[in-house]
């Protein structure tokens, strides 16, 4: 069930009505939200609802034992078992076949070729998101940052449908305190929530879909059939597409949660105006980058232990961050590129070298990010290299780009250079409107998006992760 | 470990407006939006019903939805969406200079 579809619209209307109708009881409200979340998730594949429940049970049970244990040794042991169980779920569904394929290639190289038992495992939607969420809850309880939650709260934390399949990765520390009481709506969060929903619809259904179908997909499908200009514009197009696609999901998730009375964290902050790669990661997929910082980078030692260790930790964190996206070498290269550039930035700062002019730094950062997106989007390493080779052919004839596609690329970049507080300022105005007028405005905007959308809506890019 | 603080975009600066009945305000907003879309975007509704797996019930609903769409078309409620869609299609078909439309080269 995709957000920008009528299926989801009707599902939302039913869930919204029922949940607020029973809000006199916070427990019933949460039970209904949980059931709605399972219906939402089960629309892809009912079997994986059981996996979601099992994962929640593991994290609830482990955290409960850690919370109630008196000695640190038991707590450490149970935390380790819980983390291994989470990683086991992720590893089995996401990486089993990949590792076996690599092993098969290695054995064949040594002359021991064997038919290894590949399972062709179907990847459960959102498995990377809910396992990371479960692990952060477990680690936070182990570190004594939050207390263990009830089974209902933990199951809902991991299953809550707005963030379930593509984030943001909402931590227990953020959401569990909100689950303890029936939330209260106010006009601020509703106005901003509605604005985020229609804004997300526009970015996904109009900008991302149009660029994807009419430029990016055909060019990446066969780079050799396209000119250097097509390849260059498709790379820029993909930079805009993935931003508009992923940030749209996050915006809609934040907006939908707000209509149920819950606050989700910010996940994007105009990432292409970043003036360094470290700045980029403070603006792109913030819930993942802060997760990687708090639970991986600092766990590895962070910037303690000297410059060499800090550089190693940055590289390892970004490599694993890349691998989190999927079991492909191209994701590792993408993560490695981001890590390597951050290491260079760290060394640059330590050497006391002067910073670049801001505009130049933004341009360089954007182009490194776009280079990374080519590996991220390409089917294989060879395809990415062929793409880069095509860019170097310097054939500047236009075969793909239309005025509309060019305008959408520019528009996607323009979003990054508007005042950061603009959406909130608009919401401050919307909250003062009479409800029927705001309803008309919302309907008018949805109608506009629907008139411009491409026929059918492709799944969000981050659903595959 | 740094303190993790929730920074949510739905927290607007300044004092929030509580209002007398924010839930009622929200329900009316969403209700009006849904109603307007039911009238002005009737074609999307019937297209959605037509995409569902065919069953006797689906066919009944499809007939009703198509009747509803025809009624809305006749009343002119769907004209804004249709006009916008046609303008968008023209924008999609536009090319730089004398370039041939995609797929005809």
Structural class of chain B: mainly alpha
Helical content of chain B stands at 55-70%
Gyration radius of chain A, rounded: 23 Å
Total number of domains of chain A: 2
Major sheet summary line of chain B: none
Number of strands of chain B: 0
Quaternary organisation of the protein chains: heterodimer
What's the pLDDT, averaged over the residues of chain B?
86
- Let me know the average pLDDT of chain A: 92
Shape of chain A: globular
The largest interface is: A-B, 64 and 51 residues
Number of DSSP strand runs of chain A: 0
Give the SSE order of chain A as H and E letters: HHHHHHHHHHHHHHHHHHH
Structural class of chain A: mainly alpha
pLDDT < 50 stretches of chain B: none
Strand content of chain B: under 5%
Helical stretch count of chain B? 4
Ordered list of secondary-structure elements with their pairings:
The complex is a heterodimer of chains A (465) and B (105).
Chain A: H1 6-21, H2 26-42, H3 47-68, H4 72-109, H5 127-142, H6 151-159, H7 161-164, H8 172-179, H9 187-221, H10 228-259, H11 277-281, H12 286-297, H13 307-324, H14 329-350, H15 358-377, H16 381-391, H17 403-414, H18 422-430, H19 435-452
Chain B: H1 22-40, H2 42-51, H3 56-75, H4 79-93
Helix pairs in contact in B: 2-3
